[in-house]
Amino acid sequence: MLLRHKILSLNGTLSSFENKRPMQQKLRIGFIGTGRIAQALIGGMSNSPKFTLFGYDKEATALATVAANYPLQPCSSIAEVGSSADVIILAVKPYQIADVLAELKSTLQPSHLLISVAAGISTTFMAEWTSPETRIVRAMPNTPMLVGLGMTALCCGTQATSEDMACAVELFSAAGRTVVLDEVQMDGATAVSGSGPAYMFYLLEALAKGGEACGLVYADALLLASQTMLGAATMVMQSSKSPAELQHDVTTPGGTTEAGLRVMDVKQVSDAMQQCVAAAAARSRELMK
């Protein structure tokens, strides 16, 4: 089940990006910022022979560590990344984006594709700091990317092509799954999947504490809860049934599951989760640049 969204897979093709380059020449990917999300992408891309990776980080020690662990060529400046790469991935904090784009602007060419993973930074904002002709893709990944199970929402700027999006989908598929949205939907994606891991951690902690209160050792309770959440999520992804239908399938009238669900209904857990998502989406809109 695809949860009403089209999750894309490109079967290892980079469309016109590869068609426009000599057969022997790899696509050059440049990272500005080499933090955890960047490292997750670098790790995934390192397994492909299609890419040559470049990177810059203002923390020289951090950059040296990444270059030692992955086949990434360190750059001494943002401008060097711009002159070295075909695709530039901005993996810096939102408050750093304007300064990075100002420094990068002079090296940007029409052939460049610019991809940002900075939360709350619109494609319009990035175009204003570069050029109206800049080809931009905005990405909202999440931290499970660190274990290869990320979920990334992607949207195009006005100048980005279908080939640009195809390229972005393949790059982010190296560390999980992707979905392509309209930019107006990115606040919702931020609230559901960008912030979503924290909600899952919250629920897992609550389940584990509940198990502990019922006599389990905390570590055992957390394992039981974590594997159950993983298995349930996998069932949703692989089944043609909705979560409500799957819930019904495992709820025996008068049984233990029904007793637990009744408490959740009384406490209005579903309403609370929906309000949680709405609050996160509203905050995302407030922070938007």
TrEMBL record:
Binding site for NADP(+): A91, V92, K93, P94
Pfam family, one: F420_oxidored
One cellular component (GO) term of this entry: cytoplasm
EC number in record: 1.5.1.2
Domain Pyrroline-5-carboxylate reductase dimerisation per the UniProt entry, residue ranges: 183-287
InterPro entries named in the record: 6-PGluconate_DH-like_C_sf (IPR008927), NAD(P)-bd_dom_sf (IPR036291), P5C_Rdtase_cat_N (IPR028939), P5CR-like_CS (IPR053790), P5CR_dimer (IPR029036), Pyrroline-COOH_reductase (IPR000304)
One GO-annotated biological process of the protein: L-proline biosynthetic process
Entry keywords, A to Z: Amino-acid biosynthesis, Cytoplasm, NADP, Oxidoreductase, Proline biosynthesis
SUPFAM superfamilies: 6-phosphogluconate dehydrogenase C-terminal domain-like, NAD(P)-binding Rossmann-fold domains
Chief subcellular location: cytoplasm
Domain annotation Pyrroline-5-carboxylate reductase catalytic N-terminal: ranges: 28-120
Full protein name: Pyrroline-5-carboxylate reductase
Organism: Chlorobium chlorochromatii (strain CaD3)
